[in-house]
Design goal:
The protein is mostly helical. The chain has ten helices and four strands. It has a domain of 171 residues: Up-down Bundle (Four Helix Bundle (Hemerythrin (Met), subunit A)), CATH 1.20.120.1760. A hairpin with a 2-residue loop joins strand 1 and strand 2. The protein is globular, with a radius of gyration of 19 Å.
C-alpha cells in the first residue's frame, strides 16, 4: 500500500494541530505564540493541497478534512482572540451574574458575540465546498484572510490612535460583525493563483505582493490586517473597473 496517499491528510492534520495549540495560547493571552502557530497552520494549509496535486492523491475526504482544519485554525482561533480582546475591554464590567449551576460575568456574556466568526467561517467553508464559481477566484473573504486580520489585531494595540480604538468593546463588536459578514458576502475577490508569472493578467497579484512585502518590511507582523484591508479595496476597485470595460 502506497504511503503517499496519506501525506496530504497528515499535513492537513498538522494545520489542525497548529490551530488547536494557537487557540490554547490565545485563551491564555499569549497572542504572539498564537500568531506563530496560526502562520504555521496557514503554511500547512497551503502545502496539503500542493502535496495532493503533486502526488495525484486528491480525495473527497481530504477536501472535507481541509475544511474542518480551517474551521479551527482560521475560525475558532480568531474567535478566541476576539473573545479575549472583548473581555479585556469589558474588564470594568466584570460583575458576576451567578446562578447555582452557571457562574458567569456580564463581560463573558457580551464577549461571546466573538464566536460569530467561527460560525460564519463554518458556513463559508461549507458554501465554498459546493460553489463551482470559486475555482479561479473567491466569492467572499477566505477564512485565512479573515484570520490574518483578527489574529493580528492585538499587535496593533500599541500603535497611536488604534490602541484607543481597539480597547473599545463597540469597535471590536463592529469589526466582528463586518468580518463575519464578509466571509459569506458576494464580493468577488481575486486569488493569488498564477498561470503565468508575467505582468499581463497578473497586475493585481503583483501589486498586492509588492505592497505586502513593503508593509512587512516596515512594520513586521503588524502588517497583516492592513494587507487584507488593501486586498479587499483592491478587489472592489478592480471589479468596478472591469465592469466598466
Amino acid at each position: 500500500m502506497s504511503i503517499k496517499k496519506y501525506i496530504p491528510n497528515t499535513i492537513t492534520l498538522c494545520n489542525l494541530l497548529c490551530g488547536v495549540i494557537a487557540t490554547i495560547f490565545a485563551y491564555n493571552g499569549y497572542y504572539q505564540h498564537a500568531a506563530v502557530f496560526f502562520l504555521s497552520g496557514i503554511v500547512f494549509d497551503f502545502f496539503d493541497g500542493f502535496a495532493a496535486r503533486m502526488l495525484h492523491v486528491k480525495s473527497d475526504i481530504g477536501k472535507e478534512l481541509d475544511s474542518l482544519a480551517d474551521c479551527i485554525t482560521s475560525g475558532l482561533l480568531p474567535s478566541m482572540v476576539m473573545y479575549k480582546m472583548m473581555q479585556n475591554s469589558l474588564s470594568a464590567w466584570s460583575t458576576d451574574w451567578v446562578v447555582d449551576w452557571f457562574p458567569v460575568s456580564w463581560a463573558q456574556i457580551a464577549s461571546s458575540v466573538a464566536f460569530l466568526i467561527v460560525m460564519f467561517s463554518a458556513l463559508r467553508l461549507a458554501i465554498f465546498n459546493l460553489d463551482t464559481r470559486q475555482t479561479e477566484s473567491f466569492i467572499g473573504l477566505p477564512t485565512p484572510a479573515c484570520g490574518l486580520v483578527i489574529v493580528f489585531l492585538p499587535f496593533l494595540t500599541d500603535m497611536p490612535y488604534l490602541n484607543t480604538a481597539l480597547s473599545e468593546y463597540w469597535v471590536l463588536l463592529i469589526i466582528t460583525v463586518i468580518f463575519s459578514l464578509l466571509l459569506v458576502s458576494e464580493i468577488p475577490l481575486f486569488a493569488l493563483k498564477f498561470k503565468t508569472f508575467g505582468w499581463k493578467n497578473n497586475q493585481n497579484k503583483w501589486i498586492l505582493i509588492a505592497f505586502s512585502a513593503l508593509m512587512i518590511f516596515m512594520i513586521g507582523m503588524k502588517a497583516f490586517p492592513f494587507i487584507i484591508i488593501f486586498y479587499l479595496i483592491q478587489s472592489v476597485i478592480s471589479n468596478k473597473m472591469t465592469s466598466k470595460n
